[in-house]
Here is the input.
Amino acid sequence: MAKEVKTIGVMTSGGDAPGMNAAIRAVVRKAISNGMKVKGIYQGYRGLLNEEITDLSARDVSDTISRGGTILYTARCSDFRTAEGQDKGADICRKHGIDGLVVIGGDGSFAGAQQLAARGINTIGVPGTIDLDIACTDYTIGFDTAVNTAMDAIDKVRDTSTSHERCSIIEVMGRNAGYIALWCGIANGAEDVLLPEQFDFDEQKLIDNIIHNRKRGKKHHIVINAEGIGHSTSMARRIEAATGLETRATILGHMQRGGSPTCRDRVFATMMGSYAADLLKEGKSNRVVSFKNGQFVDFDIDEGLNMQKSLDEYMVRVNKAMTT
Ligand code: ADP
Ligand code: F6P
Here is the structure.
């Protein structure tokens, strides 16, 4: 028989993402409406190990749905990667009466959640990362806000790039994945998009393309470079030397992680956070909430972490066609 969960914890872990507050709010309010008590754990697994734990009421999450960042703060915690850290984490949960836990974060955070589940704490993962790089889900909380922020910034760089008839290398986040780069490439009409999944290190091809486009009258050349490839500043120097065109590098950086979440992120965060609270109410554990093929579903965390994700080839081809 499934274990009855009376008190749950909620934490955000790993890199923050816009919409995490909306997810926390949803977990809190849905859990309370399901008859459970909720405790907030500050600073992810680090806060768990330091017992940074507080009661959360429905009112404590008022006025948070529109706020970027995470009211529970977040952290990366190397101690939690060890068996001793995980044992201690499970003991602290039990000490505070936490028999269920929602972890909002990425793959790394889910690996931690898996360890707590193995130690008897009913644990559910909610995908929160701007990178969209979690294989078992088509959507991750924060991606939509991040690509919209990046898109706006790239539009602005493009204005000045055109005025000066320059080439611009714009680096976007995404860790080892090219989703943010590909979406911005399409949304901003970039001349070139460099994706870690496909990059062949053939810089000469890029240089030839820049020269070719200038010859056919293009006033700017926007290259979106994914963080997983990186080295945008040195790349800009080499391109300027090889093409004779003024070239500048702009690294968008952490601005992509901040800001008020978009409608899409708020709604997905609310749905996914609520779904997690429902799974705990049903006594489920070691599950990850997912949006797959247009529906909210859940997967076993072990299964989810073993899945592979690749860029949509059709999107890549469409983007290529748009640059001709
Ligand atoms: P994300 O959750 O965004 O992928 P990280 O990979 O940095 O971010 O992971 C966040 C935290 O999750 C880590 O700092 C660590 O505390 C925990 N974690 C990551 N991997 C593991 C693992 N294999 N086992 C236990 N805990 C882990
Ligand atoms: O996972 C989100 C992310 O912003 C990645 O895109 C990036 O590689 C990483 O986190 C940066 O981490 P930090 O904030 O620790 O520099």
